[in-house]
Each structure stands twice: as C-alpha cells, then as structure tokens.
C-alpha cells in the first residue's frame, strides 16, 4: 500500500466529475487500499478518489469512532431518508485547516458496489451520513465550500487565500 498525495483546493481534478467504475480489477483494489492508508495517515474520516487525482467514482470512509463503520463504496448513489437535517462542522483534507458549518441530511441510504462489483447498500445517520454526502459531492466535482452560506464562504475563502499551503 502507498500513501498518495492529496490534491489541494485549486487543483482542477477536484472540480471534475468522476467517471463510473466499470472494471473491478486488481487496480481498483490497489486504489482502495491506498486511499484507506492515505486517509488514515491524514487523519480523515473520508476520502474520494479525485482527492488523490483519480477520476473514478469511489470513496473510502472510517466513521467507526462515531458509531459508523469503515470501508469503501464504488459508484455510490444516495438518497435522503426523511427531511431531518443536521447543521454542523465540516472540513476537508483537500482544504486543510478550514472548518465551517454545513447543512446536510441527517439520515441517508446509499447503494453502490464493493471492490469486487458486488452490490452493497446501507442506511446511515450523523457523521456517517455527512461523510457519504460530502464524499459523493467530491465525486461530482463539488467542494463543501459550495454548500456554505455566503458569509461563511467569504470567511473560508479569505482563510484559504492566506493559507501557507495555497499556491498563490
């Protein structure tokens, strides 16, 4: 397994919609294992493939500390369960040190496939539901900044512009 470089805000791959996975081969398994190791090394709870420069529809997650689970989903599709929402802090490994409150659905159902192409599905709430929505957004080329209220977005962008990691 390899720890891969995480792409940072400003990299065009982060705003590119990832393509459906059609080949469930050894390369996909290596990607998933590398993504899990990269996420762990970075201290994240989720990581989408385009965050490591790969435009394939797969993300990994580890919400086990919060009652969720650890794993991966290939070609995820989610839908809300009910209309309850959660409004809470959200950050992103591709936008270091920036955290803002984001409104997300409280409960979701996600379906997709595992690394071997077998169908999987689960219902999630809380942090796990937030993670599913956040990482699915990544696969659609949407950063959490687009989900912020205007004042919060301005504040986050001001922080990004002076961040040492941001390539001016």
Question: Would you report the number of β strands?
Answer: 7
Q: Could you give me the name of the CATH homologous superfamily?
A: Peptide deformylase
Q: List segments where confidence is low: pLDDT < 50 over at least 5 consecutive residues.
A: none
The topology string of helices and strands comes to HEEEEEEEHH
**What about the largest sheet?**
5 strands, antiparallel
Per the principal axes of the C-alpha atoms, what is the gross shape?
Answer: globular
Largest sheet, order of strands side by side?
1-2-3-6-7
Structural domain count: 1
Work out the strand percent.
25-35%
Q: Tell me the distance between the termini.
A: 32 Å
Class in CATH?
Answer: Alpha Beta
Secondary-structure-based class equals alpha+beta
Enzyme class: hydrolase
GO molecular function: metal ion binding; peptide deformylase activity
Catalytic activity: N-terminal N-formyl-L-methionyl-[peptide] + H2O = N-terminal L-methionyl-[peptide] + formate
Function: Removes the formyl group from the N-terminal Met of newly synthesized proteins. Requires at least a dipeptide for an efficient rate of reaction. N-terminal L-methionine is a prerequisite for activity but the enzyme has broad specificity at other positions.
């Amino acid at each position: 397994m390899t720890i891969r470089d995480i792409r940072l805000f400003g990299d065009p791959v982060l705003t590119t919609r990832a393509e459906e996975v059609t080949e469930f081969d050894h390369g996909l398994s290596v990607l998933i294992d590398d993504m899990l190791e990269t996420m762990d090394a970075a201290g994240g709870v989720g990581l989408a493939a385009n965050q490591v420069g790969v435009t394939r529809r797969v993300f990994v997650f580890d919400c086990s500390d919060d009652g969720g689970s650890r794993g991966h989903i290939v070609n995820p599709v989610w839908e809300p369960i009910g209309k309850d929402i959660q409004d809470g802090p959200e950050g992103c490994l591709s936008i270091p040190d920036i955290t803002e409150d984001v409104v997300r659905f409280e409960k979701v159902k996600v379906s997709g496939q595992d690394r071997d192409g077998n169908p999987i599905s689960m219902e999630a709430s809380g942090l796990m539901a937030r993670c599913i929505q956040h990482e699915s957004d990544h696969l659609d080329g949407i950063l959490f900044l687009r989900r912020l209220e205007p004042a919060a977005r301005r504040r986050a962008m001001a922080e990004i512009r002076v961040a040492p990691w941001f390539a001016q």
